[in-house]
Amino acid sequence: MKQYVVYTCFVLALFWACRKSGGDNRPAAPTPYQVELPANFPAPVYDFAQNPTTVEGVALGRRLFYDPRLSRDSSISCGFCHQQFAAFAHFDHSLSHGIDNRNGIRSVPSLFNLIWQK
Hints:
- This protein is mostly helical.
- 27% of the residues lie in helices and 0% in strands.
- It has one domain (2-21, 52-116): Cytochrome Bc1 Complex, Chain D, domain 2 (Orthogonal Bundle).
- The protein has helices at 2-18, 55-65, 78-81.
- The longest helix is centred in the N-terminal third of the chain and has 17 residues, at 2-18.
- The radius of gyration is 17 Å and the shape is flat.
- It starts with a helix and ends in a 37-residue tail after the last helix.
């Protein structure tokens, strides 16, 4: 299943990157996305130089995160379990819910504040 998700993400990203805009075959230059942190926050551990953040990349990531078609049966998106209002975790249940109406074997880890993680 992991390979299916990776393959689907690759195909979608390739399609998105290759689409034509206004008849011009050249892809538009990516728009840099500036991550703004409050002055009293520590410096991020994540190295943005190795993977520059762009407005288009953020939009694509959001779209893929909430797209249920990436699951095996096209019923559950990543955002189904990693709920934004719960720090991108799931606090309603002790175990995550999966496809085919099955419960998972572990809880959903939070995806919040990952720029301060190694």
